[in-house]
């Protein structure tokens, strides 16, 4: 929702000038800015986590990264029948494209996942993987 100058909340609308300038109001994972900061994705230590990422675009890429770890396997373009990349930390997901990422984290903690284009983090494209029973805020 976007708040107007008179305080009325309105749905977001497409702004061609902002699209041409590549200046979005926000960037997100699954449509809601910061939703996985307040509601982290959870897993147990040592459990394999598979993340499917699509950069819906229409213009900006996502440089997918989980802070504090490496991807065990990554399939750019979501071609899971192909040979994965191993031991990579950031993979570009082009606008309109997708990727599949496997990660196994042995240590409990809060691990942010982001677009490594860090301006996008400030616009809401950030989430947390909560590994184990940990408290507090980001630890990596």
How is this structure best summarized?
This protein is mainly beta and 140 residues long.
Tell me what the CATH architecture is.
Answer: Sandwich
CATH class: Mainly Beta
Number of spatially distinct domains: 1
Q: Roughly what percent helix?
A: 10-25%
**Quaternary structure:** single chain
Radius of gyration: 16 Å
Order of helices and strands: EEHHEEEEEEEHE
Largest sheet: 5 strands, mixed
The CA-CA distance between the termini, in Å, is 30 Å
Can you offer a commentary on this structure?
The chain is mostly beta strands. The protein has a single domain (about 35-130), classed as Cupredoxins -  blue copper proteins (Immunoglobulin-like), CATH 2.60.40.420. Helices cover about 10% and strands about 35% of the residues. The protein has three helices and ten strands, in the order ββααβββββββαβ. The mean pLDDT is about 85.
Features:
three-stranded antiparallel sheet, mainly beta, Immunoglobulin-like, 140 residues
Helix/strand layout:
Blueprint: E1 2-3, E2 9-10, H1 16-21, H2 35-38, E3 39-43, E4 48-54, E5 62-66, E6 73-76, E7 90-93, E8 98-104, E9 109-115, H3 119-122, E10 126-131
Parallel strand pairs: 3-10
Antiparallel strand pairs: 1-2, 4-8, 5-7, 5-9, 6-8, 9-10
